[in-house]
Specification:
With 221 residues, the chain is an alpha/beta fold. The chain contains nine helices and seven strands. The structure holds S-adenosylmethionine.
Length: 221
């Protein structure tokens, strides 16, 4: 058996999570509020969501952006995103595609004022290459936002130490490690904000950064 995670392992893993995803990660979250504020500040950007899951991020942002493209390697996640988008009516500024964000290109998709990795960069087989690919999708003034649980988050530690083993990459980075990796991809860290993770219920999940998640915002260097 190979140690290298296979792309179909990632898709199959998240296919299993698709039916219950929205219940656990809805638009009431702090990260959704953060992204709405960011889109308002950027002035209705064109957005790409890399690893879009069931599409809620873009659906929640639809009124705040010019248009949105969601890309996900899991066909079941994309099917759920398309079903969720249908509720917006026939006229929508959103499109969802099955695809590997590692191979996303500006030639095929155009350029964006905002690219997002929300809970998805940690699953990339080659995170440095994924960051470089995302940088290549930005227009000159574009921003990349990475939202990721901190590696010291209790839920992350629990699944790392006690969770079942899947054939899926799971590599959470500290903000400092992410900023260093992004620098190599031609991206400059502009700001880093703490976000609660896992809902508002448990005290530990509300601690900023170390026990929660963070949003790191990058511009082209
Ligand atoms: C933890 S989920 C986050 C989904 C969504 N961003 C959210 O916050 O609700 C990670 C998503 O990344 C997707 N993913 C993982 N590797 C990918 C890749 N190489 N290309 C595109 N999507 C990928 C998975 O299929 C999954 O839907």
């Amino acid at each position: 058996m190979s140690d290298t995670p296979k792309p179909y392992g990632v898709a199959a893993f998240f296919d299993r999570h698709a039916p219950g995803w929205d219940a656990a990660h809805g638009p009431q979250s702090d990260r959704a509020a953060y992204l709405r504020g960011l889109c308002a500040a950027l002035g209705r950007p064109r957005v790409i969501d890399l690893g879009c899951g069931t599409g809620w991020q873009l659906i929640d942002l639809a009124d705040h952006i010019a248009s949105g493209v969601g890309l996900d390697i899991s066909p079941a996640m994309v099917a759920q995103a398309q079903e969720n988008t249908a509720a917006l009516g026939d006229e929508t500024n959103l499109a969802f595609h099955v695809g590997d964000s590692a191979t996303a290109s500006a030639e095929a998709l155009g350029r964006f004022q905002l690219a997002l990795f929300v809970g998805s960069l940690e699953h990339a087989t080659d995170q440095a290459a994924a960051l470089a690919t995302a940088a290549g999708l930005l227009d000159g003034a574009g921003r990349l936002v990475v939202i990721m649980p901190h590696p010291c988050n209790p839920g992350v530690l629990r699944s790392r130490w006690f969770g079942p083993r899947y054939d899926v990459p799971l590599n959470h980075l500290t903000p400092r490690a992410l900023a260093g990796m992004a620098r190599g991809a031609g991206l400059r860290l502009e700001a880093c904000a703490a976000l609660p993770y896992g809902g508002r219920g448990r005290l530990l999940d509300r601690w900023p950064v170390m026990a929660g998640a963070y949003a790191a915002r990058f511009a082209l260097a």
